[in-house]
Amino acid sequence: MDIHIHSSFLPQTDPEASLAFYRDTLGFEVRKDVGYNGLRWITVGPPDQPGTSIVLYPPTASPGVTDDERRTIAEMMAKGTYAIMLLATRNLDATFERIQASGAEIVEEPTVQPYGVRDCAVRDPAGNLLRVQELG
Fold first, then answer.
1. Sign of torsion, CA 104 109 112 113?
2. What is the model's pTM?
3. H or E segment to which residue 100 belongs
């Protein structure tokens, strides 16, 4: 079977802050920036991986989301429990220093986990938990 991961979605609550984090801090390129009814969907991805993208989307824009669900989504995003993404890098220390210098919230500094990987954890401007794993 020929199947690939094309896009994954992460919620964003502030398009400009998310754009600055993913473009300027992580070095992703902007592939699309689409506005509709005052909302924005921003597609970003690593420059050397043109077939894989992250769509930063307004989470409450989905049809059928109730007011109660909007409140729940906002609460979960504020706690950092709504969305998680695992990234990987060959130089975790340099990547961590760049993220830390951006002012991003640090959840866990680089450490070797009991399950054998070395990684760190940060939150993006929307509160999404990003774990950055060091490639061996």
1. negative
2. 0.91
3. helix 92-101
